[in-house]
Amino acid sequence: MVARRNVAVVGVALSDCGRVDDATPYALHAQAARRALADAGLDRSLVDGFASAGLGTLAPVEVAAHLGLRPTWVDSTSVGGSTWEVMAAHAADAIAAGHARAVLLAYGSTARADVRAGRRTGTLSFGTRGPTQFEVPYGHTLIAKYAMAARRHMIEYGTTIEQLAEVAVQARANAAPNPEAMFRTPVTVDEVLAGPMIADPFTKLHCCVRSDGGAAVLLAAEEYVRDCRTAPVWVLGSGEHVSHAALSDWPDFTVSPAAVSGRLAFERAGVRPDEMDLAEIYDAFTYMTLVTLEDLGFCGKGEGGPFVEKGRLRVGGGGLPVNTDGGGLSAQHPGMRGLFLLVEAVRQLRGEAGENRQVRRADGTLPRLAVASGTGGWFCSSGTVVLGVG
Questions:
Q1: Is the overall model pTM greater than 0.90, yes or no?
Q2: Which of 8, 43, 241, 303 could anchor a disulfide with 299, C-beta 3.0 to 4.6 Å?
C-alpha cells in the first residue's frame, strides 16, 4: 500500500494558437506536449499516465501513440469544456494513490482552420439522439441554450445587458498585453452592444472566439518535484458535478454545476473563495463568467451583475482578476478550453505571466492561490481545481 502523495503541476505549455492554418490537431497536441515536458525538465520516461479527449475514435490511444507514449494509466473523460479540470482531478487522485508517477494532459484542435478550409461547419447542435431529441425540434442551438439561461438571470435578478458586456470588455483588457491572445484591441460596452445579434441577448462579442490551438499540463508526484526545472504548483483540492442532460431537466437556469464542484474543491483544499488571488473561469459566453463567479462563492446569488462592474475582473483592477489571459472571449477558444485555464493559473502562480499581465497581491507579492473552473455542454457539467504555491 503506497501512502498518499502530494501532487504538483510541474509543466505547462500552449502550442501555437490563434490562426494556425498549416498544422493538424495531432501536430498541435505534440507541440504542446513537447513544450510542457521541456517546461518541466522531467525525463519523459517517467510519464506513465496520459489523458486526452476530443480527437480520433480512441483519443488517449491514438494521441498517445502519436506522442510515442505507452501509458499504464489513461483517461478519456469527455464532458465538454470541463473535461480538463475533471481529468486533472482524476490524474491527481491516481498519482496520490500510487497508480501513476506523472500524468500528461494534452489537447489540440484546428476548429477555426477546419471551418475556413470547409472541412467542417459551425457546430449548431450536439445531435438528435438521447435527451436532446426532445429539444432539437424547437430549434435550440448551443448558443441559444446559454442565451436562454442568461435571459432568465436578467429577469430573476435584474442583471443588465451592460453588465454582461462588461465581462467581454474586461476580458479584452486582460488580453491586450498577452502576446498569445487572438484579439487584443480594446472594446467598449457600446461596441459590444452594437455588434450583430447571435442569440438574444448575446451579440457577437458576448460569444467566444473560434481559434486553433493546443495545450498541455504535466502533473507529477511530490518525489519528482526536485528533479524539475520549475517551481511546483500544488493541486490542493478539486470537485466535479454533472447536473442535467437537457434544459428541461435543469431545475434553475440561474445556478450552474459550479455551485457543487466549487464547494467541494474549496472544502477539500481547506480554503475559502475570498482567499483566492485570481480565478480562471470557462467563458464561452459572458453569462458563464458571471454566474460561475456567483456559484463559486465570490458574490451572492443574483449579485454577479454589480460584482463584474467597475473593472473588478481586470488585472490590477482592485478586485478579483478573472481570465487573466483574456479568456475564451478574447485569447483563444479552440473547442474544449478547460486546459488553457490550468495553464494560465499555473503561469500566474509561478510569476511567469509577463509585464502588465502578472497578478500581484496588495503587498506586491506574487499570488499564492488560484482556482480554475471549467463548464461543459450547456451548463450540464463542471470541474473545479484549486491550486497553490509555497
A1: yes
A2: 303
